[in-house]
Amino acid sequence: MLHKAVDCFDGDLEGCAISVAIACASTSSILRDPELFARLDSTDPIPDSYHRPVSRRAIAASTGLPRETVRRKIAQLVGQGLLVEERAGVRTRSGVLELRRNHEFTASVMQEIVRTAQELSRIDAMVDAPPEETGTSPRRKAR
Hints:
Elements: H1 2-8, H2 13-32, H3 34-40, H4 56-63, H5 67-79, E1 83-86, E2 89-92, H6 102-128, H7 131-134
Antiparallel strand pairs: 1-2
């Protein structure tokens, strides 16, 4: 997945990390509200009014990057039209997935999440299966 980030963000992994952190923070309230998520679950971009601003300090803390690097990279991302500057911070904007190769990157991340979930389910099923089915000695499942 890292190679996809390098490819889609023209080698700018700091910009990629900052973009992802802002996207997560900016739209996380939608994912936490099942009713709102159900209403907005369509192929249309999420309206701007649902994108919440996040401070540069919070992004620096969440990424572990120096605040000056975060400030500089955010200025570049705002200049490219990928982020919107507001009084309370910066946020993603409606339709940001359609810009650059963001959709391609997001699709590859989602694919990896699905693959990982399937692998974890397979491992979980193996842990729960009797030893004769897995060909291994019994293991206890951590709870």
